[in-house]
Amino acid sequence: VSSVITWDSSYPGEKAVSFPESAGHSLDPQIGIDGAVAEIEKKIIEAFEVFDHECNKTVDVREIGSIVRSLGCFPTEAELHELLAEVEEEEPTGYINLEKFLPVMTKVLLHRSYQPIPEDVLLHAFEALDENKCGYITKEELVKYLTEEGEPFTQEEMEDMLSTALDPETNTVHYRDYISMLVVDET
Amino acid sequence: MGCNSSVAYRRSEKAIRAAILIQNWYRFTKARLETRRRYSLSIFQSIEYADEQDQLQLANFFTFMLDHCTHPDSVSQILTSPGISQVVDEGLSLTEFENKIDVPDSYYGPRLSFPLTVEDANALLHAFRNEQLLHARYVLQLLCETRRVLKEMPNITHLSTSYSKEITVCGDLHGNLDDLLLIFYKNGLPSEQNPYVFNGDFVDRGKNSMEILIILFAFLLIYPNDLHLNRGNHEDYIMNLRYGFTKEVSKKYKDHGKLILCLLRDVFSWLPLATIIDSKVLILHGGISDTTDLDFLNALERSKLKSLMRPPKSVRDRQDQPKERIPTTRLSKHIANQNVAGKTQHISSSGSTEPSGSNLPPDPALKEWKQILDILWSDPRSQNGCTPNKSRGGGCYFGPDVTAKLFERYNLKMLIRSHEFKPEGYEISHDGKVITIFSASNYYEEGSNRGAYIKLNPELIPRFVQYQVSKYTRRQNLQERVGTIESSALKSLREKIYAHRSELTSAFAQYDLNSTGRISVSDWAAAMESVLQLELPWRMLRAQLVQMTPNGEADYMSCFYDLKIGQPTKEVQPALVETLCRYRRDLEIIFNIIDKDHSGLISLEEFGQTWKLFASHLGIDVYDESLDKLILSIDYNKDGHIDFNEFLEAFHVVHRLEKKANS
């Protein structure tokens, strides 16, 4: 893996969790502002089209979260709902049009909203739940926190996380291992 | 409890913030996983559909060769099959095969006796589980009998649920024997109490197409009223030439392969086109169009159309057939209603059925062809209307309004179709009216999708059963599955990239005026799309395909670093090697035809001739000397023949550094 700084480090296939300080959306100096906006728009359209099954410039509203995140943003659920309110039709149809989505998302990327979560911050978050500082969290504790606090997980989300994170023999999650496993997978 | 309340409050607040962070981050990784899964499947599908379009172009080539090569050189005689036609005529019976083909004592596989019984079917299942082959004589007898039985059947089979509990409907199997065995294991073998409908595409791609056909045909003979087959777009000998079935048969049956294939060509054309249950549920392989006429379909002579890839002769005769250069622009799925050049490449469903400028009355053969093409190739879409199916190059996209109109006209309640890959094995569209059922699990790659089948009860309420055959004893989790699928998809994509190396290099160079070796990401993406025309999210894939420079530009030649084409000799022109790599599959099809005795060997002269014809049809310039040198270098034992399988393998793209997906 090369150690150079790439200009859009927030793309899949690269380490999103840890990245150099100046990352975010450093712009190609050759292009200039207009060119930069055009390039951002192209990125958004690409991401949109991945979820546009029928190639008719619409996606299911439930996919918006995936699209926004695939562009390197880390919105909370609450922030996503706000975004949806801006891109939905007057009468919600269950579909979102590219036409409405594009300008809103362009603004998001230009303003660098929904900043990524660095690896060390994530680690601190897990440590905060690890009261005894033993390097792991029990299944019960983790389930309690993640399904009751914050923006609670659905049953499916919880089970999915556990399927990768849980050590079935001890019924605990060794969070350092879990974090590094997911980070490695990204490269 | 009872501890310092402000500490507890702070701790709790910290915990809440931590929880939000973790949840947020988790949802992010989940979304990225989903994105990677989607674009991987998209890569597979784009390459597959692009191949299908190429296939149509190749069919044009055959058509052209067959119709216009009048001088008696070996090339034109290749494609007609003299000497085999006696097989197709009625005279051949079971006993003739018995007399003509000997089954040695050393053969321990199943020995069929006609009429077939359940014991024969069980013997076949047992044998195929143990990877045995059925002897050619029995295959031929089975095909002969199958044809006889199919001929009695109408184009559209009518079934009723009144005497049975449930009818099981299965979709595409594509040579995946494991899926068929799994279905029989979960759902029981076909019988009077357990009727089945198999909705086409039994063959191609997977490695056990022959075994699947044998099993299905055997049960058809044993339970002709309870096992029903619909024709799919892959039950077509020209499709089979490209997508692997022909090769499978030739390899498994070296002596009688050609005979088997010839008989199959006929059997496929006798497969029914559709099934209707209780006059309410229509089952066919592809879909419908706004002109679909079930009465017309029921009345036509279905066996006349051996392959849908070539329009009927009367239609070809009427159309202009200049030796056209094949257009290189792909039909874009993202641009609506593009005008298509080349009449034989696509039939517009809502357009007229006459070639432009013709004063002759509409040709019934054309209508027949189009009606069948539509039901075997069309795909449903959520937009209203009926438009030409651009990804496939045949059939159309039909919207909910088209479905509604057809249902009203024929008083139908449901349409069950297959033809399209679905990650969950099935999909419901058009407000519950259209069901897609796809039964080949792991279609693109281990873990890529589930398969499914439908159980239809007498109230005609469908129930879906999903499954996935797994090679690994330990189930992979989602992370690992996506990793596997992604690697595999990217590998296919890189091969395509390498096969277009020269074109890509010139496209890149156009943006790199100062020859720095670097261009912007935007230019890189534009160049990739203009050459490959796969409509993929290039910016998303960029990190996996090309390296970046410190100032954020694409080092475009790095696309090709880890790959090379295996070459038989070093002195051969790179451009020639690349061309051979790119057209490897097309050449394979042509060679399969030239190699009459399926020996795997063709003469140098035959190869040279055919290559020249193919190249001129594509508009490629190839200098004789380089080709001759290449051929000679491959003929290692200098006997005037080349093993073309080895030859083609030499032009397969090799990944110099195998990605460590497993380590």
TrEMBL record, chain A:
Claim: Repeat is one of the keywords in the record: yes
PROSITE patterns: EF_HAND_2
Pfam family, one: EF-hand_7
A GO molecular-function annotation: calcium ion binding
Domain EF-hand: 39-74, 117-152
Listed transmembrane segments: none
GO cellular component: sperm principal piece
Key words, A-Z: Repeat
Domain of life, source organism: Eukaryota
UniProt-listed InterPro entries: EF-hand-dom_pair, EF_hand_dom
PANTHER family: DYNEIN REGULATORY COMPLEX PROTEIN 8
Protein's recorded name: EF-hand calcium binding domain 2
From TrEMBL, chain B:
Keyword check for Manganese: yes
Region called Disordered, residue ranges: 308-363
Stated family: Belongs to the PPP phosphatase family.
Alphabetized UniProt keyword annotations: Calcium, Hydrolase, Magnesium, Manganese, Metal-binding, Protein phosphatase, Repeat
PANTHER family for the chain: SERINE/THREONINE-PROTEIN PHOSPHATASE 5-RELATED (PTHR45668), SERINE_THREONINE-PROTEIN PHOSPHATASE WITH EF-HANDS 1 (PTHR45668:SF1)
Pfam families: EF-hand_7, Metallophos, PPP5
Upper taxonomic lineage: Eukaryota, Metazoa, Chordata, Craniata, Vertebrata
Cofactor(s) named in the record: Mg(2+); Mn(2+)
EF-hand domain sequence ranges: 499-534, 582-617, 622-657
Name of the protein in its database record: Serine/threonine-protein phosphatase with EF-hands
